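---------- Forwarded message ----------

FYI, see the Inner membrane-spanning protein YciB record below. Original note from H. follows.
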Amino acid sequence: MKQPKPWVKPVLELGPVVLFFVIFMLFREDSVHVLGRDYSGFVFATLVFIPVLVISTLIMWRLTGKLAPMQIATLVLVLVFGGLSVWLDDPRFFKMKPTMIYLLFAGLLGYSLIAGRNWLGAVLGEALPLTETGWLKLTRRMAAMFLALAVANELIWRLMSETSWVWFKTFGLPVLLFLFLMANAGLYRDHALEKPDGDKPQDGK
């Protein structure tokens, strides 16, 4: 299947989040009347975000012929928790959604360590070829990171303003994930698999 242009994937992944942020900032002080009901700016932004995410995910699947497990899990949880927020007009469910996602990923990675399965390598192996030891270390670190993000999300939405949480969700979480990836540059280098014509990988680092 033909690969989409490099800019298409970031637009499809980030577009719905940016749209949510823009709509929230425009209507955060208002009550929006939709189909006979009045919604807060936050819930209205959630109402718009859900179908946009569904459409962008379907476009991604159509273009690439596959979806990553993280994309599928995110879509399902958005439908569940976002749908509850809209149905009950209660923003708390949507704010808890990142917590559920990160706990899910932390749990799956933790179980893979206990079961001796390299699930992270199965998902990212083509893009990031590492030795067995490298995958073990990265799995531990990512499990800890997801736990930390779940705790951070809970603290921020419960203790800070709604606007603060939206800024954190839109910009803070991506920055933290990027910093995590950069902080592990040494691991990628030390445990990278050698090219086929090179020496065998040193797996004991």
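H. also flagged this: The radius of gyration is 19 Å.
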